[in-house]
Amino acid sequence: MTLCQLFLQPDAAYACISELGELGIVQFRDLNPNVNSFQRKFVNEVRRCEEMERKLRFLETEIKKDELPIYDPEDNPDAPKPREMIDLEATFEKLDHELKEINTNADALLRNFNELTELKHNLSMTQAFFDEAQANPVAVLEDVNGEREIELGGQATTSVGMKLGFITGVIPRERMVTFERMLWRVCRGNVFVKQADIPDLIEDPLTGEKVHKTVFVVFFQGEQLKNRVQKICEGFRANIYPCPENPHERRELAMGVMTRLEDLTIVLSQTQDHRQRVLAASSRNLRTWQIKVKKIKAIYHTMNMFNNDVARKCFIAECWAPVTELDRIQLALRKGSEASGGGTVSSVLNRMITREQPPTHHKLNKFTQGFQNLVDAYGVATYREINPMPFVLITFPFLFAVMFGDAGHGLIVTIFALWMVLKERSLKDKWRTQEVWTIFFGGRYIILLMGLFSIYTGLIYNDVFSKSINIFGSSWRVKFGDETLNKLDTVILEPTPYNYSRTSEYRQMYSGTPYPFGLDPVWQLAENKITFTNSVKMKFAIIIGIIQMGFGVFLSLWNHLHFNHRHSIYLEFLPQIIFLAAIFFYLIILIFYKWTTFDGSVATQAPSLLIQLINMILLSYPAEPESSRTFYSGQRGIQTALILLAVICIPWMLLGKPIYRIIMNKRRANYSTVTNQTENIENENNEQIHNTEKKRGIVLDVDVRDTDTDEMLDDDHLHQQHHQLEVDMSEVWVEQGIHTIEYFLGCISHTASYLRLWALSLAHAQLSEVLWHMVLQIGLGMNGYVGAIASFIVFMPWSSLTVFILLLMEGLSAFLHALRLHWVEFQSKFYKGEGYPFVPFSFRLLLDETPTEG
């Protein structure tokens, strides 16, 4: 990775950045960090792009509202030229204006149509009220005082010759009861209300929602009651419609409403057809337009990070780029200059020398990307630091499988991951806005390897949905007679393949040849299965953990060699690996020694590994009990030497590096004193000339910059900054002390931490067995048709609990524990993760990160 400086002609800058965006291997630096975003050169162009994006979002919303398909482009369109931006703006403005005008007209027509529909129902049902009143001319209302009589009909009059007024309208059905109650209370019972429900759903003219509505007619007497009724109708948002008193006029109005409704239906149909044609034509080009606008916006946003050199009439940009890709970058710049017709002057690429830490770039593919994300979640690798991803790619799914080990569950996980892998093209954008799905889909290859490794470890454990399978035939045979088996609830199988006790009661039950692969299925029937598997799994967990920690320490050697930290090899790596080997590698040797030396005949006399390790630390070797006896002759002397060697490693690591720093600082100080004396003697007569030459810089064609001020550094500044980098020795002592304590105590705690491999494996196996016995076995234990029906019924809860508890919850638990083992126990031995990622300016990444609304 190198820092480059670009000199771009203003006319060719856009085309050059476009070519670099298609290439996607350059990360630009912001050379205007103190300039406000609204004060940059191309802020107007960015705003124009944002306005075009707003119009395209509106267009996409309207297309989805009409449920029209949006077609993806077959090819990736190139970024349009700057002059084409005006044509795009004109096209989008025309579409936006036309679509808004269509929507406005359609809304007005639809509102008018809904009002006329309500008026039609209002007139028809009001006419029914009056027809009913004319059919019963004796319908008379008497007031409480008996002073006047009101006759309902076409011409309503009172005893004093006054007419009865009325108001008709439409109100939502759920408000009708409250509406009537309010009329009764406000008008003190001096109104008469008739109502009828509209059978069809009516679209409300104001909200556009389809609701059930009711037609009402309110009869009243006098202007005061009329004003009250109108205010109540307004308060309940009832739609009031005119209704003539004359029956002939009502019929004419109804005929006119029907005619207008027919005309509006035709106009609305034509408007909708025109809208469909506009949207259908736009849907074919929508994705292409969105891609073009995003590219234009990204180019101008990138150009806002450049310096505008007015004197040289060019843009100056700085970027990080891989050294191996410089030829392709120069070719892209040349191509961009030619495409823009920039004349004879081409863009210039100049490599810069800097002490700033470059970004970390990893060449990844879709298979390794998920594993790299796991590593980067801990911390991005420091530049040129060894990347743990190639090792995590294998060890992470393996440690997960050690905890998850069930071949049946692993098969389900593998099938799910294979489905995502084989259908990844169709699934890529399907649920892209769903965060949980995005996490699962992004880690599909991790899940695939976790499933495959789980099948492998499940076969080793001989565990398939908590049951064992007998593929090769058990190595054990039950040689007891029927009388013994009927008399005893449990029997002990003889584990020794020969008559070690030389008695007539001996029966050979073990063939002497182990089960070819994994655990013998006979252990599925044993009462001491957990005791046996716990012992094996605990020892394997310790072996796996110590080997992985030792591998991490050896990887630190790679970093020391690469960064030329020779002193760290002798002062850090050697004491670390010696301490680890003296105690923990030795423990592995004892484990294998115990496995190969003690068989079934002397199993009860085998010393305890835990007690042996404690005695080794305490330098205590008691003869009793048997578990405290030594494994071999000379063990006491060897273990004492190993403990002394481990103890020596502690001050070795604690004092070595600080003492080395003190020695190097003294050498540097002595060298600086001698150099200054020599320079004073040589420059005694020409000090002024020498000072003038020093301020000219180091080398004319090399650009050395301060990482803080980004200004040119001369010799004085370099000398001052070199002394600033010297850390106070008290901080060195404290840091080294913390590092030493963390490592030596961490070796013990991390080794114990790997026992989680055994603990989670035990928990998963026991949960699976509980589900089998307490759920599925209920149905399998019945015979006949009843058993078939019961098995069918209990299969659903068993499978649901298996998926949600054992696959999802236990799988997530094993995933998090495997992640912790890699971050804390493994990567802490060699990985600092103090870098920052290489994020190139790439159109492909820009378009991939943009979610597609489903």
From TrEMBL:
Any single GO CC term annotated in Swiss-Prot or TrEMBL for this entry: plasma membrane
Membrane topology according to the record: Multi-pass membrane protein
Keyword Glycoprotein attributed: no
Keywords of this entry: Coiled coil, Hydrogen ion transport, Ion transport, Membrane, Transmembrane, Transmembrane helix, Transport
Main location: membrane
Annotated transmembrane regions: 391-419, 439-461, 540-561, 573-593, 641-660, 770-795
Subcellular localization: Membrane
GO molecular function terms listed in the Swiss-Prot or TrEMBL record: ATPase binding; proton-transporting ATPase activity, rotational mechanism
Coiled-coil annotated residue ranges, if any: 42-119
GO biological process: vacuolar acidification
Keyword Acyltransferase part of the UniProt annotation: no
Function: Essential component of the vacuolar proton pump (V-ATPase), a multimeric enzyme that catalyzes the translocation of protons across the membranes. Required for assembly and activity of the V-ATPase.
Family: Belongs to the V-ATPase 116 kDa subunit family.
Protein name in the entry: V-type proton ATPase subunit a
Biological classification of the source: Eukaryota, Metazoa, Spiralia, Gnathifera, Rotifera
